[in-house]
């Protein structure tokens, strides 16, 4: 039976030579745009399923390769009949039971039937239940176990939580399983972009297969005092002109509490002073360092005495910060 051809590249609005990364980015953008929780329109729900179906094929290199090979057997806008035995000896990996849509990383499962085009190519249950003929022609069947898909989500934490470790409560929402609360342990010293694995919290398996995993990607919220670069931390230390010129000892706040920091005489604005081992913890190696960046501040208003002293200094000082530059 002829079915309408689906141009999955057009659905995701990507070129045919798009990288896997570009395909994933396009899918995430469109899935977020048409997600049922954000857009209640019927057209949006239809689009959401179309986007999920396209991604189900193009995200898998083997499925994508086989799909691309069909180019000589169709013309855009016409019905499509799969070439005879086009999928012989080809295993498409994780197929889903007929009627189950692709999973979504945005907290919902796209329940609903795939298009006839998808079913004609990849089958609804071919990879889920296989039939065989036993001795004497007796029919039997076995269910092929398939592990569920892994899901990825993002979790935002404070720098203090990343530094010391924390326990966070998160809520997962699925149309098939409802709301589920999980307790997540954040290890000390976790860095931006690192992922925490929650075994068995991903997609459901098929045929008795185990569930996939959920990977939480760490995002650390901006901090008002510290900046993080790798395992090193950076903070600014405002200094008066006389502290930088004469040297001083100031109190500085770190994530472990206040410390006294010696400012060498002649410290320049932008100069970095290192506090070894005061950066992000590292469970495998030594911790990072804390770099204190000197920022020399000049008073905007002077009282009479201060003005007199600065005038005296300007008269007797031979310092010229511009050197001989014309």
Structure description:
With 326 residues, the chain is of the alpha+beta class. The protein folds into three domains: 3-128, DnaJ domain (Helix Hairpins, Orthogonal Bundle), CATH 1.10.287; 151-220, Urease metallochaperone UreE, N-terminal domain (HSP40/DNAj peptide-binding domain), CATH 2.60.260; 227-316, Urease metallochaperone UreE, N-terminal domain (HSP40/DNAj peptide-binding domain, Sandwich), CATH 2.60.260.20. The protein is built from eight helices and 15 strands. The strands form six sheets. It has a four-stranded mixed beta sheet. A three-stranded mixed beta sheet has the order 5-9-8. Strand 12 (248-254) and strand 13 (257-263) form a beta hairpin. Helix 2 packs antiparallel against helix 3. The longest helix has 17 residues, at 42-58. The radius of gyration is 31 Å and the shape is elongated. 18% of the residues are buried. Residues 72-81, 83-113 and 124-143 have low confidence and may be disordered.
Keywords:
4-stranded mixed β-sheet, 326 residues, HSP40/DNAj peptide-binding domain, 3 domains, Helix Hairpins, elongated, 24% helix, 3-stranded mixed β-sheet
